[in-house]
Specification:
about 300 residues, alpha/beta, Uracil-DNA Glycosylase, subunit E, 2 domains, 6-stranded mixed sheet, 9 helices, 6 strands, about 35% helix, about 10% strand, globular
Amino acid sequence: MTFPPNPPDQTTREALHARLRFYRELGIGELYRREVDPALWVQADTQPDTQPDTAVVEPSRPAASAPRPEPAAAPALFSTPDLYPSQETDIAPRKPFPAAPPQAAPLPPEQHFAALKLIREEIGDCTRCTLHKGRNKIVFGDGDPNAKLMFVGEGPGADEDAQGLPFVGRGGQLLNNMIQAMGLKREEVYIANVVKCRPPSNRTPEPDEAHTCSPFLFKQIDVVRPKVIVALGQTAVTYLTGEKRPLSGWRGVTHPFRGGAKLIVTYHPAFLLRDPNQKKHAWADLQIAMRELGLTPPARK
């Protein structure tokens, strides 16, 4: 079976992005597609079929006296056979995460609003990465500048890009319900994202895009000084901590973070919309945050 060298259409690309996002929220790591010279597909298509369809081809066997060649050493993380040794190139090692910016000194609570405004002015009409080419509005952040609880997501979607506010679509409605279940109002927390411009087709931000934008997120954290930060999904926790590991390795406990905050990790609301069975696990994560903040859930009406 051969595959066409042509790139997939837009519908297929969007479906692949959605599937990869689903895997990432499950904690599955990166999936690599190794490049193959398109000439190989053409060559395979033009090779004459010398065997009938029903023929069984026996693999050739080396002579008994011929020594078996030693296989080349494979990288520790990959043990798949080398299908095209003359055409493939090695996968470049993952670049290390840049260090987070130095932590800023704490400000008096009455100066938090003005300090956040200065960060927004520093961002300006940003063109630092390619995401600016398709955006409608920069989505900076929303909520109480003195909040004790902060939520960090991945990036804006279509609704957020249109309104300039984080988490206002279907995922935002679910997040509002989660906040209300904790006994809080949305106006009492602070919400921001790793990137502040919508990625095309809601794809995952590329590392250079996230690394370009995340310093502004760290500045927001340093101003707000929350007691608890809830990272919503794999992308958020990866760029907050600079560590890549399955989501299951983060959930269920608190992690020390900058400014003395406690970092808690749970599923992204968009993932919970796709798999509602995980809501009970997300609620268990939020209860950890509630204990850190001394909150009790409101009585059910």
